[in-house]
Amino acid sequence: MDEKFSFLTKVDRDSSNLIKGLQLVQAAEGYVSDDGLRAVAEYFAMPAVEVEGVVSFYAQFKRVKPGRHKISVCDGTACHIKGAAQVLEWMRQELGIDSGETTADGNFSLETVACLGCCSLAPVMSVDGKVFGKLDRKKMVKILKEYAD
Amino acid sequence: MDTRIKLLRVGVASCGIAAGAEAVQTKLRECAGDVPVIGVGCLGCCYAEPMVEAVLEDGSGILYGNVTPDDVPGILELGEAKRFEVPPLRGQKQLIKVLALAGRVDPTNFDDYIAHGGYEGLKNALRMTPEEVVNEMKLSGLRGRGGGGFPTGNKWSFLAAKQAEEKILICNADEGDPGAFMDRSLMESVPHQVLEGMLIAAYATGATKLFIYCRAEYPLAIKHLKIAIAQIYEHRLNVIAGRELEIIIKEGAGAFVCGEETALIASLEGKRGTPRFRPPFPTDSGYKGAPTMINNVETYGNVPLILREGGAEFAKIGTAGSKGTKLFALAGDLKYPGLVEVPMGTTLGEIVFDMGGADRDAVKAVQTGGPSGGCIPVELFDTPVDYDSLRSLGAIMGSGGMIVIGKDRCMVETARYFLDFTHRESCGKCTFCRVGTTRMFETLERIVAGKGVPEDLDFLEDLGKKIKAGSLCGLGQTAPNPVLATLRYFRNEYEEHVRDHRCAALQCNALVELKLNRDQCVKCRQCIRVCPVGAVSDDFVIDPAKCTRCNSCMDSCPKHAIKRVTKEI
Known about the structure:
Low-confidence stretches of chain B: none
Largest sheet of chain B: 5 strands, mixed
Number of helices of chain A: 6
Strand order of the largest sheet of chain B: 12-11-15-13-14
Oligomer: heterodimer
Low-confidence stretches of chain A: none
């Protein structure tokens, strides 16, 4: 197995740990690369295609290299009602990308998530895991500036 | 009265942190001298986060809300500014039992939980036989809080009756309904209570391997559970009736369908989370073929109470068919969003108006049960909240998310939103769910874009019924609910969209344009400055072809001279 993925040995070689193994790969690389996927398949002695099947099933796993900062716009019910679609539209205008894409300079990647669990602060987004609530356009632009390189 | 501060509590659950509670906590620690500052869970009043409670020597507490670090010196002098009171009606009508320790105890401190009666339920259980514990659960009338409403005691008796080398217990913490955060709050605030419930269940059923399947989006809940599990191991509470129990946290990977029990088990096994036919039921053949029982977080959270006060006492609260209290996560168009706990049988109106502070004249409906539920119009708000009453209205209790929908929201758009969610979350196994929900979604997209035809409504109704009948699991069986319920109660809105191409709520962008009223305009040019697409001309006319209806100009206009209006056809 590729040295780079030796951390996989931290989990038992039991197929029930497959998702955990993939989560470790994604934590290390920011996404599941072809190499990472092959390493997981090798470690759990499974066909790579089966691992790909699991990867593609779960929304958490990314197969595309993400930007340096990860923006998650919440589109849960409460946020949707409070204008999540608007937040995404502003993002589109400010960054020129849609959900699931990364900016050309590799600084931001954008995704929508079902619910960040902070419904009372809707609309909500998170940047690198930090949550920002009660968004309006001005506030959002200010946050983006803070994270710009 | 002794007015010295004995203890300072800061709400540092996810919602508190998002509102900036950590900075407040840091500042308090700097300024409070010898007074201990502890981070606690959720008090339920999310709208007032960050919250601080100053506990006085006599045990009474003073609450502060919307606190910033600058307010800290004032709080230490018990100043009047930023004092917070739970809205009186909410205080009166709540019955806080399951959440009694949330916001009171330090979730990471084992001794704090013990000092508040923690693990008394487990002690009582261990003095009884496993059969007696199961009977106590049956007596309590507790039904599954995850949405299914299956009698918990019966489920326990199924697993207890199994003879097997290894039996599995699972806590379903894959709270995936958008708008629901009861389970997160409970796990973050009082993780030991959930674990105590699991240990009692393990004793009653003979299970030795305990899984908590928690969604990865809840890092703080996972952290607190991990700390609590380490403390359980340290105090050897995991050794029950001579058996050593293993407690394992598994993180989900983002799939709504994994809330369904057979899909959850597949996911735990490291597979794609697709549901399968039942029977065999998990209690016969579950995780890796072993007898397995799944209960929801809130269900386990109720168990220690039942074993502490007795099943009969527990059953005194609630309605004939639904016992105890229920947590609801209130969100949407209301004044006091957050978490409430009420006796079963409380009416929707009491929850939405009295406790949520929603404006009686501004509410159109409430959506219960998330994307699997239905919306109930305001005319039916005297309906008591219990499993059976809600089902009869075409909605479900679900896990307890409640989204209040104001009169200025479009119900067709709301239904489209839910179908957008479910059609993406369909696992693809059943054709009706996979293709059917996509067709429903496309039809709704067409309607909100002003391109619907009257036949669409019959099509939606017909397809919705077929999806319900032709799907294997709860996701498909309930996915059409938001559309069917809105068609039932708000058909006029659909008709308006397809017949007149008009959205009365002015929400559907394709049917709306922004108009500037020149009589009110003071020519401050703010709208021209903020428009991201240059749609406002120098003589203050908004070009509907360029305008994206982003509302930036409307929000920035100091004179409110810009409004959304029905698009001229």
